[in-house]
Design a protein that fits this description.
356 residues; Thrombin, subunit H; six-stranded antiparallel β-barrel; elongated
């Protein structure tokens, strides 16, 4: 299948012109080939942008036609008393004024239309990062049995260590409104934690484990990436959409998040409730972001807050509080290892977060 044939199939797929068998086969191709999946997402965004542009041009044509039907001279002839300075100015410049008025109306429609769209996108973003219990929210209800002294968790997510002495970074919306928080490692050991630092704007929270049973971790194997991440760069995430840690593979599909949000990357990675707060890493073991949420109107579009804002959270914590903190821009000890070796080392530092 060449590029032209693929584009034609994608367009038929988005317009609902494929048969049931063809649609099933194409969706299987999307699941197996991330490049094809990315092309579908990009083409859908392109078609939506094209429709918006066509709507604006249609409105402009309607405004121009309305202007052409206005008999400005006849209206001016009926004005009494004799023309004042303002009316003379209008008569001398009526064409320019009418055109300007048309474009002012058009600009107002476009502006307020865009404002409504931005509001809708912001509402969607709020659902992605704040609404508990929806499929767009990357948090999950934890239903495992707990000791009788602890009530069942209301919701939860993932987190990862940013120091060896029990500081865990997660998404703010995972712990928002919680009375108490626990973190659980890959061996099933749970520890009491509390919110130490929160950044609701960038959806980041730092937890501090306050539990006498907690043993300090070894030196963190990953680092924070100092430079930006390129489109198409391969990335992966570890998190807890279920009781065992889950690996998700993909690539960066955009340098901006929802509605051009510069705080986040858009990534083509399958994420599910429970992944929020999990680390996003490149192949060299550098943390490039933290999983935040997913778009419900575009398939294969998840979002991750960039590592720059993780660094800002670290800088907000007193330096004497952290021990063996995650390095920023240094060489990761995961670099050069195969993926399964990286995951084996990483999962010691990734936690399930349970909010009560």
């Amino acid at each position: 299948m060449n590029e032209i044939e693929l584009e034609a199939i994608i367009e038929d797929y988005l317009n609902g012109k494929l048969t049931a068998n063809e649609q099933s086969a194409f969706e299987q191709l999307r699941n197996n080939d991330p490049i094809v999946d990315h092309k579908v997402v990009a083409h859908k965004v392109f078609l939506e942008s094209l429709k918006q542009y066509a709507d604006v041009m249609s409105l402009k044509q309607q405004l121009d036609a309305a202007h052409d039907r206005i008999d400005v001279a006849a209206i001016s002839a009926k004005v009494k008393p004799h023309p004042s300075r303002i009316i003379r100015m209008f008569r001398n410049n009526k064409a320019a004024i009418a055109v300007a008025a048309s474009f002012l109306v058009l600009a107002s429609v476009v502006y307020f239309g865009q404002t409504r769209q931005d509001d809708n996108m912001q509402l969607l973003n709020n659902k992605v990062i704040a609404t508990q219990g929806t499929l767009n929210d990357i948090v999950r209800v934890v239903k495992e049995p707990k000791p009788s002294t602890i009530t069942p968790a209301r919701f939860g997510g993932s987190g990862f260590a940013i120091s060896s002495n029990g500081y865990i970074l997660t998404s703010y919306h995972v712990i928002k409104g919680a009375d108490s928080v626990y973190v659980q490692n890959n061996r099933g050991e749970s520890y009491k934690a509390k919110a130490f630092y929160t950044d609701p704007v960038n959806d980041i929270a730092v937890l501090k484990i306050n539990d006498s049973d907690f043993t300090a971790l070894g030196a963190l194997p990953y680092t924070l990436k100092r430079t930006g991440t390129s489109i198409g760069e391969l990335v992966y995430t570890l998190g807890y959409p279920k009781d065992d840690v889950v690996l998700g593979d993909g690539y960066v599909s955009s340098k901006t998040g929802l509605n051009g949000d510069t705080v986040s990357y858009q990534v083509a990675i399958p994420v599910n409730p429970g992944n929020s707060g999990g680390p996003l890493l490149d192949n060299n073991g550098n943390i490039v972001g933290v999983i935040k949420g997913k778009e419900n109107k575009i398939d294969g579009a998840a979002f991750a807050v960039k590592s720059k804002y993780i660094a800002e959270a670290l800088n907000a914590i007193p330096q004497d509080s952290l021990r063996r903190r995650v390095a920023y821009g240094k060489r990761s000890s995961l670099q050069g290892l195969k993926r399964e070796q990286q995951v084996r080392k990483m999962q010691e530092y990734v936690f399930m977060v349970k909010a009560y």
